[in-house]
């Protein structure tokens, strides 16, 4: 592999990687040589995911730490654990996220806050803790997983749209404060990707045909489609890419 994209000896923490996109991104980073740390809140699922991935790599390359990304104290504990138990954190992927589908007039403020804190505040909390270690070392990569909803709106997912739009601007704010210290902070905005989170949409015939019609590539994305962009943004191949959000969406956001 070209050394530009080689992640050997780099430690990567991927939040929300017990399944779905986060799990696939952690595997892609490990395939590129990184030592990866998986995260989630459900300890049983996280343990199983780490064991399954560890079986495919040499000993010591796959770790896991359960913590809730919405908690200030937990985020600090999780990042400190990585630094102490695994090594200097070089790559952080802020991926953990949830959705809650309710029309806004029926939306409870508790559900609004739950989505905002999981999909937006978490990236500030974990990103800040990671940056405390990365800045003195003068390098580090942070990748924030946004969405096409960063730019587009649909009914019933208002807090998700607000959070993902905010995440794109948080990516810029982190860049404004930390790029001069050698950090690159960028976003990946996936289109509709077939995972557990979207299984109900894949199964909904009407929605499914709307997605296919709305996506120039005429298909759902797969977690594999996100692997290359993530490895690139985590590698030294992207060292002068700062504050960008890259849409991996089969062209969805460039057509009406
Ligand atoms: P999944 O529902 O498949 O997985 C979500 C992951 O986040 C799980 O590992 C879950 O852990 C973890 N998680 C949820 N809440 C917390 C928390 N408070 N603390 C720590 N971990 C948490 O989601 P996807 O893989 O589909 O989505 C991943 C990201 O990609 C999200 O940010 C989503 O918004 C974004 N995205 C997804 C798209 C799609 O089409 N699927 C499209 C665009 C963006 P646990 O197993 O413990 O619950």
Keywords:
alpha/beta, binds NADPH dihydro-nicotinamide-adenine-dinucleotide phosphate, single chain, 256 residues, 7 strands, Rossmann fold
Summarize the structure in short.
The chain is an alpha/beta fold and 256 residues long.
Folded structure, characterized:
This protein is α/β, with parallel strands linked by helices and 256 residues long. The protein has a single domain, classed as Rossmann fold, CATH 3.40.50. It has 8 helices and 7 strands. α4 links the parallel β4 and β5. α1 packs across α8 and α4 runs parallel beside α5. The longest helix has 29 residues. Bound molecules: NADPH dihydro-nicotinamide-adenine-dinucleotide phosphate (NDP). The site of NADPH dihydro-nicotinamide-adenine-dinucleotide phosphate has 31 residues, from α1 and α4.
CATH architecture: 3-Layer(aba) Sandwich
**What is the global morphology?**
globular
**Bound small molecules, deduplicated:** NADPH dihydro-nicotinamide-adenine-dinucleotide phosphate
Say what the CATH topology is: Rossmann fold
What is the topology?
Elements: E1 11-14, H1 20-31, E2 35-38, H2 43-54, E3 62-64, H3 72-85, E4 89-94, H4 109-137, E5 140-145, H5 158-178, E6 183-190, H6 199-203, H7 205-214, H8 223-234, E7 245-248
Helix pairs in contact: 1-8, 3-4, 4-5
The structure holds NADPH dihydro-nicotinamide-adenine-dinucleotide phosphate.
The site of NADPH dihydro-nicotinamide-adenine-dinucleotide phosphate has 31 residues, from helix 1 and helix 4.
GO molecular function: gluconate 5-dehydrogenase activity
Protein name: Gluconate 5-dehydrogenase
Organism: Pseudarthrobacter siccitolerans
